């Protein structure tokens, strides 16, 4: 069963193209994480928020990634991280064209 990891946090930028340029190395490194399937990057310059929605092969790989990611964010001075790990209902997700 696959799992979704939803993460968001306050951030003062960069956003948009600047964010894409600034975080491209981190984005590439995420592809190498154990159990990683895909990620959607999220941002809201209006509310100074960023984050992402990830899928992982197992709950354990999502939990392991969350610990590493929370520590990495703390290195950037971001300490108030909201996160949830939820199981994916594959049958219903496929009906709605979800990439699972």
Order of helices and strands: EHHEEHEH
Number of domains: 1
Instruction: Outline the biggest β-sheet.
Output: 4 strands, antiparallel
Distance from first to last alpha carbon? 10 Å
Order of strands across the widest beta sheet? Answer: 2-3-1-4
Provide a count of the helices: 4
Amount of helix: 25-40%
Strand portion? 25-35%
Low-pLDDT runs of 5+ residues are: none
Structural class: alpha+beta
Level-1 CATH class name: Alpha Beta
Estimate the global geometry from the Cα principal axes.
globular
CATH architecture: 2-Layer Sandwich
Task: Provide the CATH topology.
Answer: Alpha-Beta Plaits
Query: How large, in whole angstroms, is the Cα Rg?
Result: 14 Å
Q: What would the average pLDDT be, to the nearest integer? A: 95
| Secondary structure: number of strands | 4
């Amino acid at each position: 069963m696959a799992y979704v990891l939803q993460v968001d946090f306050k951030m003062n930028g960069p956003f948009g193209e600047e964010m894409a340029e600034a975080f491209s190395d981190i984005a590439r490194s995420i592809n190498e994480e154990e159990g990683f399937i895909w990620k959607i990057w999220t941002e809201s310059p209006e509310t100074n928020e960023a984050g992402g929605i990830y899928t992982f092969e197992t709950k354990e790989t999502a939990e392991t990634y969350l610990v590493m990611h929370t520590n990495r964010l703390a290195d950037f001075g971001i300490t108030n991280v909201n996160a949830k790990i939820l199981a994916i209902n594959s049958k219903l997700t496929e009906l709605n064209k979800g990439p699972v």
